[in-house]
Design brief:
- The chain is mainly beta.
- It is built from no helices and 40 strands.
- It is globular.
- The two termini are 22 Å apart.
Amino acid sequence: MPKIKNPVIPGMSPDPSIIRVDNTYYIATSTFHWQPAIQIFQSHDLSNWVLIDYIFKHGEINLSGTNTPAGVWAPHLSYDPINKKYWLIYSHMINMAGREFNADTYAICADNIQGPWSAPIYLTSIGFDPALFHDDDGKHYLTILEWETRQGHQAPGHIVIAEVDLTTGKLISPWVRVTQGFTTRGCAEAPQLYKKQNYYYLLIAAGGTGYAHGIEIGRSKNIFGPYQPHPSGEPIVTSSPNHLFSLGDPDAGHFEMYNPNSVMQKAGHGSLVETQNGDWYIAHLMSRPIKGTLLNPLGRETSIQKMQWTDDGWLVMADGSNLAKMEFDSPIPIKGKITDDVIDEFDQAYQLQFMTPYRHQSSTWVNSDERQSHLRIYGQNSLFSQVKPSIMATRATSFNYHVQTKVEFHPEHYSQTAGVGLYYDSNNWLYLHLTYSEQLKTTILTILQAKLGVRVEFTNHRIAIPDGIVELKLAYQQGIVDLFYKQDQEWISIINGLDMLYLSDEGVNGEPGEIGGFTGLFNFIASVDSYQHQSYADFDYYYVINNR
């Protein structure tokens, strides 16, 4: 019997929302401050997932200046079989200061998963992690976390439900508070409704998106409750099954709940799907820390577990436990395994995997038209900037890989650069690049680093590249990085053994025991022109080769 091996979508793919339409499965995931916004993956076997599109590709959402980890949170994908429409609902997190968490929630719809999508319909600003439920009587319901800001009240708030008019976005019923969680883990969020036989089932995330993360469930014969918790009193899926009492605890990290017996950590935030044959699966987020650490450079990834219904109508994992597995037998035929490598020689339009922080991709600054078989990137603001950095990046999907490129660049000022690197956010990155040296009066190759917002120049690593053409390579092994360049036949080492483990969800805020980001590590090529905004770099190819 074939096996589904997790993660099924490696690298940054958190908060998966899964649906099936006919014989095809789709997953939507969060993208935060990255554009294009909201990834859409497709599969026919629940094991191989291919990125097929993004929801917002033309700057429809303004993410300029977005602080990590705000932006586009927890999209929920649904299909209304009565009207035969796809629906996508999401929250745009605008502010997180003062624990206010200001987020506006919108819904869009389309006749096809790849659009065109309708104009966004505003729904609410009560909280985040919204979801839509289309009942069989034609009514539509909105579930969401009502964010709690008041002192003396249980954080993070209540799960609330309201009937909604999807034509106008107006609420038909008042908000009804239905639960603050079905176990003692607390931090109830990401509510999603399902209907089976005579019951409404409310699936929620719990424990915070850290090492105590889990998935809980309750049921009711009335959509507004009251909801009866699962009789186990524990999450139905988690990577840390030990009991935890954490009601009202704002700590999302819960590093004490790390499970040393599991490769998978942080399993939670789930979404259910039923196959054509009546089998049930749950897609959920997870993380894999670097061995010997609690640091997760690849961020939160997507995994799947097989579920089953008990005779008394409760959902449990197919093996009877609640421990999320790295692999399991699948009754669905699996045809091979797709690669997560990125091979782009820019013979046509650049590949779909490329994303950009804070700004949308436009041919005015990045294109493969102006020079045949090259990607031209016009430089703008520095990599520290959250406004118009010229970065083209792809998700890191392995702990062991190398990324390489060939670039031609002719700077005339030290504020003009072009090269390759690793990127978490505007305060945390590594950049091997060409620039201009006034001292040597020529183009040079050197290294720049951002660590917790501090600029680090590698002043003893400067190599003259007079013709401005060079191949660059970055080798990543379990968080340790070696850098190379090539002008003729041999790769030459620039520096070895750079510790880049801080480029991880837990490493980017400098506070031990806290989570600083919700995204993940990216590989990138970029150009900067903080001089005149007129220089450009031409990239001949871009390879990311994962070592299995």
